[in-house]
Amino acid sequence: MRHPGMIALCLCGTVALSACGGNRDAAAARAMQSVNVIDESNLSDIMLTVGDPNEAVAYFTKTSAANPDRIDLKRNLAKSLVKAGKASEAVAVWTTVVASPEGTSDDRVALADALIRTNDWKRAEAELNQVPPTHETYERYRLEAMVADSKKDWKKADSFYEIAAGLTTKPAGVLNNWGYSKLTRSDYAGAEKLFLEAITFDSTLFTAKNNLILARGAQRKYDMPVLEMTQTERAELLYTLALTAIKQGDVTVGKGLLHEAVDTHPQHFEAAARSLAALDANVTN
């Protein structure tokens, strides 16, 4: 004799087990998806920070093509293109990102940066003009300063450089740019001050050291400043100072600095030796 109640109970148990199995499968799928997202995020970070730029471009090109609705992948592709020195291609991708509903003010600033790298200053300025004034970031004001520089609007440039320097804990780069701006205006004393400040924030920034020598040389300060430097760096800085002196007509001083550069370099300093030989030949003739 059948027992309907027992059969119903068994059926309910089967359904319950099926439901539990489905829940477990769904939970497992969600867990795996979370792991995949974490792994993908970590890989993206690695590609952007320590990976080879061209490998990063290849990775983000592939993943972005496979996920055309993922703006974050397009954003990372644009960043990797900039790192790989492919600014023109980055402009196209950043333009797409900015035009999307997920586009942000940071994205527009990044587009302006890519445009500056392609020497499209007019469009870069237009993009920066669309950034809300409330978006006060280091990168925004650094670019605003560069645009003002390109227009020789020194008052605005100085203001933007100052703001940018105050918005970062690592201002060496922007201080160096500001100093170079002063250098192009022939404000050599102002440039010297900014280069020295840049070096206090980053003693490894050789560009700022070299620019400092140019600023000092332009003021006929031919003594080497007290800086943290390697022997090779010292030789190269002496060479820069020598060329600056010669350019200003201080040939004897320049020749002495060339000799010092050759003697200081831990290896054969071909460029300095060649300049010295050319100078000697010119004097003989």
UniProtKB/TrEMBL annotation:
Residues 1-21 form the signal peptide. InterPro entries: TPR-like_helical_dom_sf. It holds the Pfam family TPR_19. Keywords: Lipoprotein, Signal. The keyword Transcription regulation does not apply. PROSITE patterns: PROKAR_LIPOPROTEIN. This is Putative lipoprotein. It comes from Rhodobacter ferrooxidans. The lineage of its organism: Bacteria, Pseudomonadati, Pseudomonadota, Alphaproteobacteria, Rhodobacterales.
